[in-house]
TrEMBL record:
Residues 1-28 form the signal peptide. PROSITE patterns: TAT. This is Tyrosinase. Belongs to the melC1 family. Keywords: Copper, Signal.
Length: 129
């Protein structure tokens, strides 16, 4: 039986740490998918941190090629009456132009995160050419 060396011990520890990191990422992704239902998210209309956020399914596909969803159409989100462009990812999570690299389980969660990120600033309309 080979002798346990410092190199082998460190290699085993690094392998175990990598395995735990991968397992944690997979668990987080599974939790986000579990929160997502196959049906379109319900509409919402609330005041969050002093800002009015509204969301509703929009089955017309919108003017951005249906960015709101691959499951039954799009979803329209507004902050104080201004549209927050949102998109549903393939795994069922949602992102917005404000939090493009941070997925959320629901459009309501995306809207709340955008309000927090804006820190009181107005949502500027997205202009497309």
């Amino acid at each position: 039986m080979p002798e346990l060396t410092r190199r082998r011990a460190l290699g085993a520890a690094a392998g175990a740490a990598a395995a735990l990191a991968v397992a944690g990422t997979a668990a987080a992704a599974a939790a986000a998918r579990k929160e997502h239902t196959a049906a379109d998210p319900a509409s919402f209309d609330e005041v969050y941190k002093g800002r009015r956020i509204q969301g509703t399914p929009s089955h017309g596909g919108g003017h951005h090629g249906g960015h709101g969803g691959g499951h039954g159409g799009g979803y329209s989100v507004h902050i104080d009456g201004e549209e927050l462009h949102v998109m549903r990812n393939a795994d069922g999570t949602w992102i917005s132009v404000v939090n493009h690299y941070e997925p959320f389980a629901t459009p309501r969660a995306v809207a709340r995160a955008a309000v927090a990120e804006l820190q009181g600033a107005d949502l500027v309309p997205l202009v497309t050419v």
